[in-house]
Design a protein that fits this description.
alpha/beta, Jelly Rolls, Immunoglobulin-like, TIM Barrel, 3 domains, 9 helices, globular, binds alpha-D-glucopyranuronic acid, carbohydrate binding
């Protein structure tokens, strides 16, 4: 065992110290050091990494990150793992999808690879950027702990410069996907707990002074003629340049306490799903420069109406998880484009990307193809709202999501939660998040998927007073089997702001073993859609409909003979090809809404 090795001071630590992981939980890799990456060169670290699962955290106990590279024959001591030899795993990936024996593994896993570093510029700074790792990712470079990140679906950066050496460097990541009770999501949810480095991992180089963030948006004042720019810089800087050539903007802006801000009076072509116009923007600071493609639009609420660029908008939507039969939670461009094609085939103009930040490509592609998005942090079900650790995690994930996607015109709603019980603790926790979101981004609406107040049979939730849109999950015809209660709910409720049905639906199973009638039959699912789409348009305050969901997807909790580990409420089966009867009911319903809209224009 390593305990007898020349790391002998490690002996007690290895076997007797159950606080072994405390030194590696700084959560110092967070939104504060997230680097704007638009337009930057990314040196990919994707490919085969050496890999092992580590169920007992032996790696942290024995400090595998201290192990030096040696030939097996020359090692003097017994050792339990060799980071420089053995099996590998493709990065990015979900380890569950690589080997059957890894499918249900929850715990730590170690990733190791060499980096051959060649300095390009004397003062350059080098950052590691991880698109996402689920859930806790600890970073070690050349045997030194750099920091860790909490959050399974948002990007983070780690500066490597101080530890980086010319030539060969050893980079090790320890990723842990254990479910716990002190963060988002909690240990209990309704999607599969994939693990690993499942989005892109890159190196990014910058000069000593660089642009840390770029935020460009249309000032939501109803004039549609003012663009706001906010540029944050790191390192000594007196001015930064901003250009938007197509609108004749090229301006040097003074930097005050690390920030440059300006507003420009222009007449942009407004972005909309029908006309997804994007503009090339660029910011430069000395040798550093970043760019982005930004659409300018205004989304607002007026009474119970939602308006895009001043026009009344009904959100014809569908929910979608990040889940794939072959890829798990890893998203590909092809997978995202297929998802959007299927949504458009339903006549959707929007999707709710449930229940966590999806791959950053999703919003970029939605910007291009003209779809609106609801994006959400996994503040899901019974969160420990009183726990400061949970509050810190929620705030960080929300800030990382907003900083990542706030230049995306397609994103119109930030959601701070899903189906959380209406308690005092939850109200304080969620209103704190709402305030943080509004402060970080004045150009979007804030919502959450709330529950029906069954006691009063009303759409009523104290959080609604702090939201722009009331998201409502109602399953009349499925979980609430008496569909007529939806009518009572509708008649009892008089919300003063728009309601978007953020979930409804039913399971519908296909195939030779599927029931032909009753719950879990395709027919029963279709009937629920028929009733929901027949009634909801009668409620003037309902300004959006988002059935649950586009595709069947993996969920460990779903184990009845029909489900076999899948939630089968998809309008399309898990093959992402076979459409169910309800697909056509929803498609035709949305077609009618579209036609009614065009007639009213
Ligand atoms: C809930 C929840 C979803 C879940 C769905 C279901 O509303 O928000 O995450 O999958 O219902 O029960 O299928």
């Amino acid at each position: 065992m390593l305990e007898k090795s020349d790391l002998a001071d490690n002996a007690v630590e290895c076997l007797h110290n159950e606080q072994y992981d405390r030194p590696y939980n700084l959560q110092n890799l967070n939104y504060r050091n997230l680097l704007f990456s638009g337009g930057r060169e990314r040196e990919s670290l994707g490919g085969e990494w050496r890999f092992t699962l580590d169920l007992h955290d032996t790696g942290l106990r024995q400090k595998w990150f201290l192990l030096q590279q040696r030939d097996a024959e020359t090692r003097r001591d017994p050792y339990d793992y060799d980071p420089f030899a053995g099996q590998t795993i493709p990065v990015p990936s979900c380890w569950q999808m690589i080997k059957d024996k890894w499918f249900y593994f929850e715990g730590s896993a170690w990733y190791t690879r060499e980096i051959d570093y060649i300095e390009r510029d004397e003062d350059e700074r080098v950052f590691l950027r991880v698109g996402a790792a689920n859930y806790d990712c600890k970073v070690f470079l050349n045997h030194r702990f750099i920091g860790n990140h909490y959050g399974g679906s948002t990007p983070f950066c780690a500066e490597l410069t101080p530890q980086l050496q010319p030539g060969n460097n050893i980079l090790m990541l320890c990723v842990n996907n254990n479910r716990t009770t002190d963060r988002l999501p909690l240990r209990n949810n309704d999607w599969f707990n994939y693990g690993g480095i499942y989005r892109e991992i890159d190196l990014i180089r910058t000069p000593a002074s660089y642009i840390r963030d770029l935020f460009v948006y249309l000032v939501p004042d109803g004039g549609y003629n003012r663009i706001a720019v906010r540029i944050a810089v790191e390192g000594p800087a007196t001015e930064v340049n901003f250009t938007l050539t197509e609108l004749g903007i090229s301006q040097s802006l003074p930097v005050v306490e690390g920030v440059a801000e300006a507003t420009f009076c222009v007449q942009p072509v407004l972005w909309s799903p029908e006309q997804p116009k994007l503009y090339q923007v660029m910011a430069s600071l000395g040798r550093d420069w970043v760019s982005d493609r930004v659409g300018f639009r205004q989304i607002e609420v007026v009474g119970t109406d939602i308006r895009l660029n001043g026009r009344s908008l009904y959100l014809r939507g569908v929910n979608c998880h990040e889940d794939d039969l072959l890829l798990g939670k890893m998203a590909s461009e092809a997978d995202i484009r297929r998802r959007f094609r299927d949504a458009k085939a339903l006549n959707c103009n929007y999707l709710r990307l449930a229940h966590y930040p999806h791959h950053e490509m999703a919003a970029r592609i939605a910007d291009e193809v003209g779809l609106l998005l609801w994006e959400e942090i996994p503040n899901y079900w019974a969160i420990d709202f009183n726990n400061p650790a949970t509050q810190r995690d929620a705030h960080n994930q929300l800030m990382e999501l907003i900083m990542r996607d706030r230049n995306r015109a397609s994103v119109i709603i930030w959601s701070v939660g899903n189906e959380n019980a209406d308690t005092d603790e939850r109200l304080h926790f969620m209103t704190t998040l709402v305030k943080a979101a509004r402060q970080a981004d004045p150009s979007r609406l804030i919502s959450a998927a709330c529950l029906v107040n069954h006691a009063k049979m009303k759409i009523e939730d104290r959080l609604a007073d702090h939201l722009d849109i009331i998201g409502l999950n109602e399953y009349y015809g499925w979980y609430e089997e008496n569909f007529e209660d939806l009518i009572a709910l509708g008649e009892n409720s008089s919300p003063t702001k728009p309601v978007v049905i953020t979930e409804t639906g039913a399971e519908g199973v296909l195939g030779e073993h599927a029931p032909q009638s009753g719950p879990f039959s395709e027919h029963y699912m279709a009937e629920v859609y028929r009733k929901q789409t027949a009634y909801l348009p009668k409620l003037g305050y309902v300004r959006g409909f988002t059935p649950w969901l586009l595709y069947d997807y993996r969920s460990e909790r779903r184990q009845n003979p029909y489900q076999q580990g899948f939630n089968c409420k998809g309008l399309i089966a898990a093959d992402k090809h076979t459409r169910k009867a309800a697909f056509y009911i929803l498609r035709d319903f949305y077609q009618q809404l579209k036609q009614a809209e065009s007639l009213s224009d």
